[in-house]
Amino acid sequence: QLQLVESGGGRVQPGGSLRLSCVASGFTLDYYGVGWFRQAPGSEREADSCINGSGGTTAFADSVKGRFTISRDNAKNTVYLQMNSLKPEDTAVYYCAVRKYFCPGTEEFDSWGQGTQVTVSS
Description:
The protein is mainly beta. The protein has strands spanning 3-7, 10-12, 18-25, 32-39, 46-51, 58-60, 68-73, 78-83, 92-100, 111-112, 116-120. A hairpin with a 6-residue loop joins strand 4 (32-39) and strand 5.
């Protein structure tokens, strides 16, 4: 059973940083693309970033380019999202998802985590 658990969320002031973790259990992340998504209240879930199965290719939404980085440690079965220069509009629940070989989408995925809340506020 593919299980994902996100952690690392919290409350931070504008301009601050957080590092989110997505830990997989019940399967190995090798060969899985992993994506990070956000969902703000009243909004649809949208993709922020993705790292492919080999870890060689990453992608980012325009809104987070230059501020967020994604990395994976297959030995720890974990993917990280480093978020810098956070803005109030980054406030949302952040989810990770996986898809075999490819980056997951909101409609194409093998598993989702339960999410972690990120609040950016002064």
